[in-house]
Amino acid sequence: MTEPYAVAVPKGYRVGVWEVREPLATGAFGSVYAARRTAESTELPRTAALKFLPTGTATPRRLTHLRELVEREVELYRRLKQPRLVRMYETLTVDDPDRPELDGATVLVLERAEGSLSALLTAEPRPEAGPALLAQICEGLAQLHGAGWVHGDLKPANVLLMDDGSVRLADFNMAAELEGTHAYTPAFSTPDYTPPELLWTEIGERGRRIRPSADVWAFGVLAHLVLTDSFPLPGGTPTARRDAAAAYARGTDELRLSPELPDDWRQIISACLTRTHQDRVCGEALLDRVRAAAGTGHRSFRLPRLRPAHRRSRRIAVLAAGAALAALGYGITTWTGPGDDGGSKAGETRKVTPATYGASELRTDKGVPVAYRRLIVDSAHDCVQPEITPALIAAMLKVESDFDPDLSDPDAGEEGEYGIARWTPSILRWWIRADGVPAKETPRPPLTPSESIPAMARYLCFAEPRLEAGLSGDRRVLVAAAYRTSYKSVNNAGGVPPKYRDYAARVAHYLKEYTPAVKK
Amino acid sequence: MYSIIVVPPPTTEDERDLSQIRLAPGERLTFGRSAHDNDLRITHDGVSRRAGEITAQGAFWILSNLSREQTYVVENPEGAGEHVKIAPGRLDAPIPFEFSRIVLPAAGDLLALQVWAPRHDYLSGTGGLDGATTAPAFSLDRTKRYFAVLAALCEPRLRGTPHAPLPTVDQVADRLRPTWPAASRTSVQWNIDYLAVKLRLKPGPESADTGPRLNGKKESLVSLALRFDLVREDDLAVLASRSSGRVPR
Question: InterPro entries per the record (chain B) (predicted)?
Fold first, then answer.
C-alpha cells in the first residue's frame, strides 16, 4: 500500500463507542480503518470498519462534491438492507476541534470484512471458488437493481469478502437511484470497468446518465478477470484497453474473449459485454444464467477464507460428539421407497427425488419425508454457513410442523403461521425471493414447501453470522431459536431465551437424530 | 466517444463555417485537393491532391504527410512558438499538443487546419496509472488559457457570493488582460465554446438552435465546474494579482 491515506487517523483514536485500530484501505475519497467497540452494546457488533470521509470544514480539501458523494452513500445504506450489500450500523461526525484535519469528518460504521476481491485476486489469481463468488456478486447487483439503484463503480476493490467467505458489495459513492430508465451519477469512473457508451459521454449539470447496464458491463469485465486473470479487451495499459473498448463499440473490432473460458461463461460474458447498452443482458436474466453456470443450485460450495476461521474447531467438536451418539443407531438402515408418500405437494415441478438424496448429510431412516429431501438438502447447500445443514433444517421442520405442508394456525401471533415452516406471511415476504429482494406483496397462505423451505434456509443463513461469538450452546440450535424469535433476542439473552428452551431442546433432539454418523 | 476534433480552414464562400469533424480512436481523416480520395476537401491549388491523413489514436493523434515536397508545420498556438515539423512522406508522426494548427504552405498562402485533442489525461489525486482507481471524468490543463477563462467565470461565486451574476465576456477579457494581453471578446468566446466541448457539456434544450444567446452555456459551465470542484479557491491564483490583495489567503 504505497498510496498516501486520504484521511490519516491515529491508532487508538476514539469516535463514539469505537476505538480505531489498523488501517484497512484507502480510496480516492476516504480511508477505512478497523475498529473495536469499547462500550457495552446490544445493537452493535464487537468489531467494525470505520470509513472516514474528509467532509470537515477545516480540511484542506474543501470539496463540495465530496459531501454529495457521502450523502449518496449514506442514503443508500439507510434505505437498502440486503444480504449481499455491506451493512451500515451508524454514522458519526467527528467533533474534535483540536484536530482540524479530522474535525467534521463523516464516519460510516460498516460491517467488517476480511478483505476484498482485489486482495484475493492478488494472492490467488483465478480463485477456485471464482464461479461461486461471481454468483454472489451477481446476486448483489440484482438486489441493488431490484431496489432501483445503480452501483456505478463495480470493481474487485469494491467487492468485499466476509469472515464466512460470503460476498458483499460495498462502496456506494457512485451509486444512484434510478429515475425511470437511468440515474445520474457523479462524473467519476474506473477506466477498466467503464462501458464504452460512458467513455467521454456528455455530462449534464446533474452529472452523467447511467443505466443498470453499466454495472452489467462491469460485471462482465470482472467475471473475465476472475476466471482468466486477464481483461476481456486487449491492451497492456488502461488507456490501450479503453481505446480497444471504443473500437469494439464502434464495430471496427470484434470481442475476443480468452480461450480458457468455459462455454457457459463465454456466453454470459459476451451477453454482458455487448456493444450497446440496449443489447446487454439484464440483471434478473443474468443472475439465472450465472447461477446455472456456477452450479450453485446443485452443488455445495465453500468460499475461500482469507484467514482460518476461529469457529471451525468448535464446530468439529460438536459434530464429533453428535457422530459418536448417532453411531449407536447406525447400521440398521432401512431404505424408504421412492416418493410415494404425498410428494405432490413438494413443489410445482414434481421432481422424482431419490430416497437417498443427500444421504451423507441427512439420514434416510428417521422419517424425513422423501418428497422434501431435495428441497431440504439443496436449500442448506445454498448457504455458505457451515452450521446450516440439511439435518438442521429437517429438525426444524419436524419441530415446527411435523412436516405438515398444510399447517394453518391463524391464531398464532397477529396474523397467524402457515405451512411446513410455520412462516408468518409478512416476514416470509422478506425471504421468499432467492435474490434477496423482498417480494412486492405479502404472500398469502397456503404457503408451499417450495417457498417455505428455501426461505427458511435463507433466513438461517442471514441470522447465523449475526449471532455473537460467545453465546452458550450449539450454534445450530441457537440459530434455530433465532428463527423462532430473532437473532437479537438470542444475543440479548446470551443463549436460547428461557421461553424457547423446550423448542430448542426438541430441535437438538431431532438434529441429533437426523445427522448421519459419518460425514463424507 | 470522439477524442479528436478537426476544424477545417475557413472557406471563402462561408467565412464563419465552423463545422467540426469528430474522430473516435482509430478513425482516420484524409485531406487534400482532390474531391474523390479525401474525407476533407481543401480547395486551394497549392495543396496536394492527397495532402495528408489525420488518425485519432486514443487521446492524441498522428499525422501522415502524403505530399512529395512540402514540409508541414504543426504549431501549438498557446505554446509560445512550440511546433513540430513533419517532413514530406513522413507517416504516423505523433502530435502531443492539445491544440494544434497544421500549417499547409499553399502557393504563398498559409492555410491553417486546426486539430483539438480535448481528451488528454492528467494525473488525479492519489491515483496511480493502474486503471483500477476511480478517476474523475474531467481532465483540465491548469496552464491553458481556457482554465484561466473558467477561473475568471467562476471567480465571483468562489469569492463567496453564491448567486453573484456571472461576468460578461468583455468583463472576463478585461479581467484576464494583465496576464494575457491579447485577450479579446472573440478569444474569450472561443475558449468558452472550447470548454463546452472539453467538458462535454450536454447542450440544453433551449440552446439546441445555436442562437446568439450564450448565457446558458456560461451558466452551465460554471455550475458544472463548481459542482465537481474543477476550479477551487486556490486556483484563482491563475488570474492576475489585481484583486489578490483583497482576499486573505
Answer: SMAD_FHA_dom_sf
Residue B11's pLDDT band (cuts 50, 70, 90): low
One of 3.40.30.10, 3.30.200.20, 3.40.50.300, 3.20.20.30 is the CATH number of A14-112, namely: 3.30.200.20
Cβ-defined contact of A190 to B200 (cutoff 8 Å): no
Q: Cβ distance B184 to B171 under 8 Å?
A: no
Domain A312-514 has CATH 1.10.530.10: yes
Domain with CATH 1.10.530.10 in chain A: 312-514
pLDDT of residue B132: 60
CB nearest to B200's CB, from A6, A192, A201: A201
> According to the model, what pLDDT value does residue B13 have?
56
* A344 pLDDT more than 70: no
For B163, the domain range is 145-241
SS (H, E, C) A200-257: CCCEECCEEEECHHHHHHHHHHHHHHHHHCCCCCCCCCHHHHHHHHHHHHHCCCCCCC
Q: How far is CA A93 from the centre of its chain?
A: 28
Nearest one of A311, A318, A381, A300 to A508, comparing CA atoms? A318
- pLDDT tens per residue, range A424-480: 888 888 888 776 677 778 888 888 888 899 899 888 888 888 888 888 888 889 999
CA distance B233 to chain A (A): 9
A205 contacts in B (CB within 8 Å)?
220, 223-224, 227
Share of chain A above pLDDT 90, in %: 17
Q: What is the DSSP string of B156-222?
A: HHHTT-TTPPPPPHHHHHHHHTTT-TT--HHHHHHHHHHHHHHTTBPPPGGGSS--S--HHHHHHHH
Q: Which residues of A touch B1 (CB under 8 A)?
A: 196-197, 199-201, 246, 249-250
Q: How many structural domains compose chain B?
A: 2
Sequence-ordered list of residues with C-beta below 8 angstroms from that of A487, at least 6 positions apart, any chain = A463, A466, A467, A479
Task: Tell whether B70 is covered by a domain.
Answer: yes
Q: What is the CATH number of the domain that holds B88?
A: 2.60.200.20
Q: Which of B59, B127, B137 sits opposite A28 (nearest CB)?
A: B127
Size of interface A-B (CB pairs under 8 A): 107
Most confident by average pLDDT, A179-183, B141-145, B242-246: B141-145
Give the tens place of pLDDT for each residue, B187-239: 998 899 889 888 887 665 544 444 444 457 888 888 888 877 788 888 888 88
| Cβ separation B58–A196 shorter than 8 A | no
Q: Is the pLDDT of residue B120 over 70?
A: yes
How many angstroms away from the CA of B46 is the closest CA of chain A? 35
B88 shares its domain with B160: no
B109 with B209, same domain? no
Residue B150 sits in the same domain as residue B232:
yes
B112 with B153, same domain: the answer is no
* A233 — pLDDT class (breaks 50, 70, 90): very high
CA–CA separation, B249 and B243 (whole Å): 12
Q: A116-294: which CATH topology?
A: Transferase(Phosphotransferase); domain 1 (1.10.510)
